[in-house]
Amino acid sequence: MKKDAFLNICRSKAKKDLTEEDLNFLGSIGEAVESAFTEDKTERDKKFLEIENKLGTLEEGKTFSGIVRDLATAFDALEAKSKRGFDSDEKYRLKKMLMDKKDEIQRARKGDGQWSIEFRAKRTASALMTTSTVLTGATAFNNVNIMDDLELVVIQYPKNFILDAVTSRQVSNVPASVKWKEQTTAGVGVTTAVSEGAEKPLVDKKFVWKYADRVKYAGRIEMSEELEIDFEQLVIQIITMFEDDVIRVWQDAVLAAIIAWADTYTSTILDGTIINPTNYAVIEAGKLHIRNNEYEPDVLIMNPGDAAAMLLIQDNNGAQQFIPESLMFGGLTPIFSNKITAGKILIGTKRTVKEQHGNFIVRKGVYGNQFIENESTIVGEVFSILQLPTLSQPSWIYLDIATVKAALLLIGA
To answer: Which pTM does this prediction carry?
Structure first.
């Protein structure tokens, strides 16, 4: 709700002509109402209550408070029903209105007149960033000796690591799909030693096509022109944070896909042989499981808490046991991240998982009424395609530490 629109409503409700003083007063109220509309419902209701307590009464018993309450109710209803873009009915009505105005439009084009049309389209209310919503909590200071620290203190997130654990590369254009040939067990015959003059066995190899499709990870932010002018450096950092958000979602999706695809522990010859299984034993069992499937694991990903527990091994007298870092993770390259659930370990063979991605793309533009409202939208997106071959599934394993320890525990220990 804009200030001018609020003044127009007040004029229509008043039973007398409003003076310049009245208009100035109502203008300040309109600005407060406009600010309230940028808040969520809870904060908006608080601001409306404050406005109501300060408003006077129009002639014939009509209160400005009632006007504001009506506006708040109407705004809530509009917000609940709003939607983006034009539906088919709106498109039809717009076309019909333009056809009805055809003669006026043609005269206007010749310079012989003017034409106008009223058509309103609704879109979902966005989290528009303005100078009043992005930076809050300002306090008045009497001290003139104040330094404005431009460094932002922001929410911390786990490191983006998964592309360091797989075979990943950046390309200029990510293909829509990737296909590869994967061997099946449907083939027959094996080579063997044969005697002189004996028939050689027929060997038949079979393959099947496998596919992976490109995925786009994207988001958008919207802001006012005033925010870009007043807080240029803040906006730059916001865009950087937005880029991190998109990349984080992309890499989290890749990690989730690998975890869902990875093999699970069944059994090895280590089962039932260890008196006091530790995380070290769990890692060795995971490595053996992968090696039993003819792959050589080279990367390990685990929660920092589980890794820290491995440093605190004590003997029966409570003395700290020191284990060299080169031996701690069994020769695997360790990666520690809170994105791996505590109590879980992911072990894999880097070369068997392939991922391609493009540059992070940032676009700026306007849509709807943003141009006339001095607003803009920034869109960020990244394309990625991930190959998870079915045959290579045993090259990665997702371990539940407690489950594997129970399997390794020496019976009767």
So the answer is: 0.63
